[in-house]
Specification:
about 240 residues; mainly beta; seven-stranded mixed sheet; about 0% helix
Length: about 240
Amino acid sequence: MITIRPSEQRGRTQTGWLDSRHSFSFDQYFDPRHMRFRSLRVINEDWVAPGAGFPMHPHRDMEIITYILQGALQHRDSMGNGSVIRPGDVQRMTAGTGVLHSEFNASQDEPVHLLQIWIVPEKRGLQPGYEQKSFAKETKEGAWRLLAAPDGSEGALTIHQDAKLLAARLPADSELRYELRPGRHAWLQVADGAVGLDGHELRAGDGAAISEQAVFTLRVSRDAPAAEVLLFDLA
């Protein structure tokens, strides 16, 4: 079974420096029909104005993953970490017992476009932690690249939940299959471009919940630009 979450139906937050779309209920956007999907609690697609960002603020008991689509994001936290995250980089922060962090657009000229993802951890009260890795673009071309997993296998980030995050870039006139083990569920998020998902047409910003389906296939048409997708394989 496939259930589509259209981009234009997401919640929205707009301020002078932030334009954010929410796939699930978040902050002042509340919709009881869209609270979470399995352990996936938040997918926010953010556009942050040049030189602006989120000042120091607290989190706890959440696995927070940042995926940059365009631009550069500067991160600082109460664990002493400081970095700039760019396309190809993926960051994981375990908020656990509590952490403070800030995120600012590292450019004074260009906006930064990103996905911020929250996954509910397997248990509360974990020790806070931080990890950031780069994944070469070619490793995602026409294939699934594991970005995060419970055991950190295949060079992926380690997350504290029975969940995997994968990414792929599909060139024009291509297709890519994925097999779900029995009892597993998937969420597909289109980051860029357009794909066909077993007869459903999805565009950038669209999401799809997939359950009770062993195999599904993504397709990009011959005359379409390349598409970029994220896939969450969830218990």
